[in-house]
Q: What sequence folds into this?
């Protein structure tokens, strides 16, 4: 039998449960016979949660935690509801009353003892103005009024105006008195004033803290800004006194 191929000898008998081999000694790709058992059993399939973010250490919250969460949600809901209700009430009041910004008018401006030398200004100003409340149902309470007088952008003097109360559809006349004694000004101010004389243009700026009131309803204090520009004061030649030129003029006001 010299031409017949002899299978390789391994020296060990085939173990039970090992897939059969071909005649050449390699494993066969044929399926094993039915009932064939293997030495190691396959591990049981792992149970997966349908949630991709499954955390095996996660624990369901207890009853106390759920009650606390529900309590906090209710508290937040009540707070939000209160804010909405309060905002709605104020909005309705605002629509009914329709508050308007007061109006201001510059009535007069007089200057006395005006002197400018060596970049120092000495003068007295008396500014008279009228505040008008255009509201039908709202009164105004001016708690504090700060006033300042300028030449262009250069501040010359400042003062405070006495507070006052104003009924609806009412006009109130008040005045601000300024005094400067040796106030320093820049060179360009001296040059421009000397060129403009005998007419000098001043500006008055006021900041008032005011509140709106209608019956028991009252707003918090708001800051009202008033600007009166183009106040030309005419000086007679070789005098240190002058008065506002022209008719009274409206001022700009805004919150």
A:
């Amino acid at each position: 039998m010299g031409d017949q191929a002899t299978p390789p000898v391994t020296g060990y008998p085939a173990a039970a449960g090992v897939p059969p081999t071909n005649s050449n000694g390699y494993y066969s790709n044929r399926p094993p016979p039915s009932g064939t058992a293997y030495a190691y059993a396959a591990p049981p399939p792992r149970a997966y949660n349908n949630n991709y973010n499954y955390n095996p250490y996660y624990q369901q919250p207890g009853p106390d935690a759920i009650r606390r969460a529900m309590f906090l949600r209710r508290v937040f809901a009540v707070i939000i509801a209160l804010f909405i209700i309060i905002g709605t009430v104020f909005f309705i009041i605002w629509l009914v009353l329709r508050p308007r910004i007061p109006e201001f008018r510059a009535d007069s401006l007089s200057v006395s003892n005006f002197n400018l030398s060596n970049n120092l200004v000495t003068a007295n100003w008396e500014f008279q103005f009228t505040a008008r409340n255009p509201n039908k149902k709202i009164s105004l309470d001016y708690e504090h009024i700060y006033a300042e007088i300028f030449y262009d952008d250069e501040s010359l003097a400042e003062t405070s105006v006495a507070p006052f109360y104003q009924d609806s559809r009412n006009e109130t006349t008040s005045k601000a008195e300024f005094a400067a004694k040796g106030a320093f000004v820049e060179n360009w101010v001296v040059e421009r004033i000397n060129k403009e004389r005998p007419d000098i243009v001043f500006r008055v700026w006021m900041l008032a803290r005011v509140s709106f009131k209608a019956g028991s309803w009252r707003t918090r204090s708001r800051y009202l800004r008033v600007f009166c520009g183009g106040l030309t004061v005419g000086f007679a030649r070789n005098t240190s006194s002058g008065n506002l030129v022209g008719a009274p003029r409206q001022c700009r006001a805004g919150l």
